[in-house]
Design a protein that fits this description.
Elements: E1 2-14, H1 20-25, E2 27-38, H2 40-45, H3 54-67, H4 73-87, E3 93-101, E4 111-119
Helix pairs in contact: 3-4
């Protein structure tokens, strides 16, 4: 039985971007991930070891966002997707959305977002 585990609006303060201001001052980023995997064992046993531990996923996202620097949110979304597929073997498909809040575009906008889907 396939299911989707979602983590939405994980917020990080990080230093990604092309502009020097973004790299030095940083800004808030939001990340959503959808992880598709077989829920059968988790649903039947009610045991965490048979599920994807979303706290581990969050910690991994934190590590990716805070220990790396990227110019583009497209690259950041790609690296998140690739690394999740590498780290969590039961994930069959991952959808990643990365939002940069209030980017420096010379006007007022809430965010820019890069979204991608990757499969095994």
């Amino acid at each position: 039985m396939k299911g989707i585990l979602k983590i939405q609006n994980a917020v990080f303060y990080a230093y990604h971007g092309v502009m020097t201001e973004e790299q030095n001052l940083g800004r808030k980023f939001e990340v959503d991930v959808e992880l598709e995997y077989d829920f059968t064992k988790a649903a039947e046993t009610d045991k965490l070891e048979n599920a994807i531990n979303y706290e581990r996923v969050y910690r991994y996202l934190n590590e990716i966002l805070l220990e790396n620097k990227f110019y583009l949110i497209e690259r950041l979304a790609y690296v998140i997707g690739k690394k999740i597929l590498e780290k969590f073997e039961s994930v069959e498909r991952v959808t990643v959305k990365v939002r940069k809040l209030h980017p420096p575009v010379g006007g007022l906008i809430d965010f820019v977002e890069a979204s991608l889907e990757m499969k095994r």
